[in-house]
Amino acid sequence: MTNSAATLDNNFNEVTIDKEVVTSKLKDMLADQLKMDAEKIDVHQPFTSYGLDSIDAFTMTGDIEDWLSIELPSALFWDYTQIDEVAHYISSNFAELRS
Fold first, then answer.
1. Rounded to two decimals, what is the model's pTM?
2. In sequence order, what E strands does the chain have?
3. Which domains does the chain have, with CATH numbers?
4. Tens digit of each residue's pLDDT (9 = 90 or more) over 9-59
5. Residue 45 to residue 41: CA distance in whole angstroms
6. Cα–Cα dist 20/26, whole Å
7. Which helix H or strand E contains 16, and what residues bound it?
8. Radius of gyration (C-alpha) of the chain in whole angstroms
9. CA 3, chain centre distance (Å)
10. Which of 7, 11, 92, 98 has its CA 20 to 30 A from that of 22?
């Protein structure tokens, strides 16, 4: 497996990813996208409170897809409005998103 963020479960039949790994990476991605300090980002605040617009959201969705080799819904950042929610969605649905 080329992605160190993902791991196989004990039965070697399902690929999983740790929510904390995703959360940390999303904070870094948002900080890079908006040119701000990642330490100032609260994972429970809505993306809109940081000024994330549709172009930024589209760009970040593509970056996440590239990072994890998954396919995400185009409305991801509107359906899940906080980093914590997006990280939970990805980590909970990782195996299906890789299909």
1. 0.85
2. 6-8, 15-17
3. 6-97 (1.10.1200.10)
4. 555 456 789 999 999 999 999 999 999 999 999 999 999 999 999 999 999
5. 8
6. 10
7. strand 15-17
8. 13
9. 14
10. 11
